[in-house]
Amino acid sequence: MSLEISWYLRFHKGASIAFLVAQDAAPQVEHALHIEPRWDMALSMHDGPEGGLRAQCTRRLPAASPPPGKDRDNGNEKDLT
């Protein structure tokens, strides 16, 4: 079985996307998050007639940039030029 979830995560422009997958495909969905690490995932049981899992993937917010002249690691003044 082959899942192309990482392609959907890579090119999806929205903030979240959901996939309906078989229960035995959960490890493949988790593997897709290693390929595209900018996403978080929540798995839940799908109540539809097919059963399976619903994988809700939500894009992580980008890390905030430090203010100009501040060190990213500890916020101390530092010449970054």
Describe this structure in words.
There is one protein chain. With 81 residues, the protein is of the alpha+beta class. It has a domain at 13-59. It contains 2 helices and 3 strands. It has a 3-stranded antiparallel beta sheet, covered by helices on one side. A hairpin with a 7-residue loop joins strand 2 and strand 3 (53-59). The termini are far apart. The mean pLDDT is 81.
List keywords for this structure.
alpha+beta; elongated; 3 strands; three-stranded antiparallel sheet; about 80 residues
In terms of topology, how is this protein built?
Layout: H1 5-11, E1 16-21, H2 26-35, E2 39-45, E3 53-59
Antiparallel strand pairs: 1-3, 2-3
Structural class: alpha+beta
- Going across the major beta sheet, what is the strand order? 1-3-2
The proportion of residues in beta strands is 15-25%
Termini Cα gap: 51 Å
User: Quick one: how many beta strands?
Assistant: 3
- Helical region count? 2
Point out poorly predicted stretches. Answer: none
Q: Could you state the order of secondary-structure elements as H and E?
A: HEHEE
Average per-residue pLDDT, rounded, comes to 81
Task: Give a quick precis of the structure.
This protein has 81 residues and is α+β, with helices and mostly antiparallel strands. The chain has helices at residues 5-11, 26-35, and strands spanning 16-21, 39-45, 53-59.
